[in-house]
Amino acid sequence: MARQAHAYHMVDPSPWPLTGAVAALLMTSGLAVWFHFNSTVLMTMGLALLLLTMYQWWRDIIREGTFQGHHTPPVQKGLRYGMILFITSEVFFFLGFFWAFYHSSLAPTPELGGCWPPTGIIPLDPFEVPLLNTAVLLASGVTVTWAHHSIMERERKQTIQALTLTILLGFYFTALQAMEYYEAPFTIADGVYGSTFFVATGFHGLHVIIGSTFLAVCLLRQIQYHFTSEHHFGFEAAAWYWHFVDVVWLFLYVSIYWWGS
Amino acid sequence: MAAAAAAGRVLQPLLRTFSAQSRQLSAAAHGEPHQAARTWKILSFVVALPAVGVCMLNTYLKMQHHSHEQPEFIAYPHLQIRSKPFPWGDGNHSLFHNSHVNPLPTGYEGGEH
């Protein structure tokens, strides 16, 4: 049987990058078709293909790393670089929306009444639900750190408890935000205030849902004994992502909710 | 193939002992990293979750002071923008539309009350 004389992972040929690309094409063109021709078929097909791609690609990575031993230290180092670079790209993504917010709010135009918030806009009180949301996410940062140390100290039950608590806090945040979206006296169509508010907080909320899902997958894997005290990079990546989501919220809270009111 | 697997099974516990030893050695050097999980557990239940509870109480109390008056509707040109209809429903309602607090460009649905 052939043996590799290096510590790296030469990945087997895989169809998932192609199906992912096709999914991206179907979702983008599907969005345009929805807007112009009132049909959601293409977009729905794209979404289904995306979900299948993600499930199967990440399942394969878990097989390669956890069950087949391909994630040697150098390979893990590469995965760490990858996750850090990805999160960095997301930071720039949000930077754009903060730029848009500050562009409009630092020099409000006469059409808005020359003030921020614009005339007629009733902003949310930053010291009600938004403050609670801040406490919820900060608390989840503490519980995810508890989970991490529990993994490293081989405390199986505590890891499961701490991870579950983190995920529940994530769900609580999402539920609170959904309620806020429904109760808000302004909508996305209320000028540049509505646009900047809902696009920035909306994308953040999407990232909370993604992060919660990532953590939930980690919980399932922890229950199934995938992680060891020395090797649990999937969990670390999820924790990094979760901290990133928390930090973005802090910036949103201070800029849009607090200063912007 | 079977020999390699057997060798692996013998080596594994040995490797674990070495790493446990190095962990105990570093415990002496770094001062009890074994305590970290307990520390964060305490922080979670004594600081983080109570803070969430306090904020929940604060929110609840503040909500009670709210008037449930519908805000007055003035048809400002820079609000309730409809350059293009929404791609759902009748195209005139936002995704999280709440008829009690979100007026349409023509005013609150069902008239003011």
Automatic annotation (TrEMBL), chain A:
Its annotated compartments are: Mitochondrion inner membrane
One Gene Ontology term of the biological-process aspect is: mitochondrial electron transport, cytochrome c to oxygen
Signal peptide start and end residues = none
Instruction: Give the membrane topology.
Output: Multi-pass membrane protein
> Cellular component GO terms, alphabetically?
mitochondrial inner membrane
- Give an example GO molecular function: cytochrome-c oxidase activity
The protein's UniProt keywords, in alphabetical order, are:
Membrane, Mitochondrion, Mitochondrion inner membrane, Translocase, Transmembrane, Transmembrane helix
Which reaction is the catalytic activity of this chain? 4 Fe(II)-[cytochrome c] + O2 + 8 H(+)(in) = 4 Fe(III)-[cytochrome c] + 2 H2O + 4 H(+)(out)
Chief localization: mitochondrion
Q: Which family does it belong to?
A: Belongs to the cytochrome c oxidase subunit 3 family.
Function, as annotated: Component of the cytochrome c oxidase, the last enzyme in the mitochondrial electron transport chain which drives oxidative phosphorylation. The respiratory chain contains 3 multisubunit complexes succinate dehydrogenase (complex II, CII), ubiquinol-cytochrome c oxidoreductase (cytochrome b-c1 complex, complex III, CIII) and cytochrome c oxidase (complex IV, CIV), that cooperate to transfer electrons derived from NADH and succinate to molecular oxygen, creating an electrochemical gradient over the inner membrane that drives transmembrane transport and the ATP synthase.
Q: Note the PANTHER family from the entry.
A: CYTOCHROME C OXIDASE SUBUNIT 3, CYTOCHROME C OXIDASE SUBUNIT III
Name used for this protein in its record: Cytochrome c oxidase subunit 3
Provide the organism lineage as a comma list.
Eukaryota, Metazoa, Chordata, Craniata, Vertebrata
